[in-house]
Design goal:
The protein has 182 residues and is of the alpha+beta class. The protein has helices spanning 10-20, 26-29, 34-38, 42-52, 113-127, 142-150; strands spanning 2-4, 59-65, 71-80, 96-104, 132-137, 154-161, 169-176. Helices cover 30% and strands 28% of the residues. Bound molecules: coenzyme A (COA).
Length: 182
């Protein structure tokens, strides 16, 4: 089942994030390390989960939960407002969704689960009035790139310098809302 997180599920949110940060490609996939995340106090996870559980907030986190109750995938969507600046200091020209924290457990990859997570995330972004949805991906993260292309994301041409890694850049990929996208 794909659903948004509930405010009280902060311990599950934390556990899934720590699992994601132990993935072999975590150094390409996420800007945070396992050690940084593991050192955060419970209050951090409580606040983060409470924010991401709101239906009409600035961010919403979706999770894939098996029938046995196991959390096996996640994506979060930030709403970025036109006229603001993003985390990298670049101007946001249109209201848009920004997908972050994309992770699916190895046993659940390659099927329809990642697609279903993305469908839920995009639908929420369109409901919130986003004109497009973007994400940032490391060019060496071949599997993520392959999935994003398959899901209809294309490179925008914008690259983002990687903090702490001089000369390395990540790619922005975008999905433009079309008439069939709700
Ligand atoms: C990224 C992720 C969510 C993608 O979900 P997934 O279920 O694995 O994706 P899929 O297997 O459906 O699609 C990947 C596609 O890329 C292809 N692919 C796999 N490895 C590849 C590589 N090294 N280079 C190019 N393409 C590759 C696959 O063949 C597949 O395409 P196909 O269905 O046409 O065969 C998942 O792999 C994951 O959680 N990875 C670890 C965390 C991560 O990298 N997150 C993204 C951060 S930006």
């Amino acid at each position: 089942m794909i659903r948004p997180v509930l405010a009280e599920e902060w311990a599950e949110v934390k556990e899934l994030r720590l699992t994601a940060l132990r993935d072999p490609v975590a150094h390409l996939a996420f800007l945070e390390t396992y050690e940084e995340a593991a050192a955060r106090p419970d209050s951090f996870w409580r606040d983060r989960t409470a924010r991401a559980a709101q239906e009409a907030g600035a961010v919403r986190q979706f999770v894939a939960v098996t029938e046995a109750g196991q959390w096996v995938g996640t994506v979060a969507v930030l709403i970025e407002e036109a006229g603001t600046k993003d985390w990298a200091g670049l101007p946001v020209e249109r209201r848009q969704g920004h997908l972050i924290g994309v992770y699916v457990a190895p046993d659940h990859r390659g099927g329809g689960l990642t697609r279903a997570l993305f469908a839920a995330a995009l639908e929420w972004a369109w409901q919130r009035g986003a004109e497009r949805v973007r994400l940032i991906v490391h060019p060496e993260n071949g599997r993520a790139l392959g999935f994003y292309r398959k899901a209809g994301f294309v490179r925008s041409g914008v690259t983002v310098p990687l903090a702490g890694k001089p000369g390395e850049h990540e790619w922005e990929m975008v999905y433009e809302r079309s008439r069939s996208d709700g």
